[in-house]
Amino acid sequence: MAKRDEKLxxxxxxxGQVCNLTQMSIGSGASDNCDQDIIKLNNLPxxxxxxxxxxxxxxxxxxxxxxxxxxxxxxxDHNDPYKSHIMFDNSLLIDPHGYEINILDGIEIVPETNQxxxxxxxDYEVLEPGASFNFRAELSxxxxxxxxxxxxxxxxxxxxxxxxxxxxxxxTTAGLGRVKGKGLKMFVYDFVNDNSxxxxxxxxxxxxxxxxxxxxxxxxxxxxxxxxxxxxxKGTFNIKSKLITAQEAINEDAxxxxxxxxxxxxxxxxxxxxxxxxxxxxKIYKTLGGKPEDLKDLFGHEGKQKEQAQxxxxxxxxxxxxxxxxxxxQRTKIDRFSGGTIDQALFNSMPVEETAEDCLTxxxxxxxxxxxxxxxxxxxxxxxxxxxxxxxxxxxxxxxxLSGTILEAAFGDKSLKVDMVNNTNEISEYFKxxxxxxxxxxx
Length: 443
Hints:
By secondary structure, the protein is an alpha+beta fold. The protein has helices spanning 49-63, 147-163, 197-207, 270-287, 296-299, 371-385, 425-433; strands at residues 8-20, 40-41, 44-47, 86-88, 91-92, 101-106, 109-110, 115-116, 122-127, 132-142, 179-190, 230-239, 246-248, 256-258, 266-268, 314-316, 319-321, 325-326, 329-334, 341-350, 352-354, 360-367, 402-411, 414-419.
């Protein structure tokens, strides 16, 4: 094992707040409440230090700058191991009343029948956007470290948190867990070059307050988050018929109501969108002669029977419905054989009935896309925009039909923008320019 000079020559502190921009679900397992509760401390949600450290370390790994200063995150080399020198605190909720938790439902659909798989219904807690948490990390600098590199990496942590692109917890491919830093600051104690740093550091240990200025001379050239080859498609829609992606109605005169928050926002979550895209893409691919197993690398899989699990390459996001208003509608179940109503089978729901113009934007991203992924995704967008594919529940009575206005797509240096109102043929012409290997004829 190599000898190291462990003399402490400096301390770096990263402090501020972290807010969730989208719903977040960092689970603690099943309970009597639901199948997946949000992790809590003293009955309040918090962000575990491991979650923050993990997502930031992953960003460093993907950026391929880890090798420059391995002491930052540590090393698992058996011949010369050493621990990480950055320590994160659990991020605790700032306002014990400034958060909202909802319980959402999930189901598994059988692709062949488009029906719910028996026994597959589950529910899970999500923390709604807008909660604020304290953020703190402490970095120890020893004599054999490269001080400028450690400063640079600490600076990158703050910039990446401020980017709003990092995601924590589960279901990130459905848009959950996006966080952003707020008021993040860096404080540097240089025990070698600053004679007052030692006294200031011990004063901080006693009082918990930094009596030094915020450090602002770190790396000024911003290094962006690591980027993969990403295909992005975005469609703008009007809701042609009523729409409902339901949640349990609490304190409402309805059995189910469109997903909403206390502030009055109605939305479609990323899981509903992803489910619709998965079913239609699989259907189109099978029609072309392909096998559904070929799409595992696109939608991800759990890795059953010794098969390695794989994260999805397709990402969806939550979509806010602008100007949404709901209306109570009563319905009755009908006996399919007699055509009459079933006794005591009255139920009701509250779908979105009125909206603003261009009320809905749906965005899909695919990492490292294959040509088939792009073609199939654009075809599903076309089906959504022309009303051939509906979203949400109660499709059997015409719910969830959309009308597209603008379709945009970009990959690399290529881009597409189609006016679906005035030039509907443009998307069909664009399909003719795409090269695509039919799976029925591929080996």
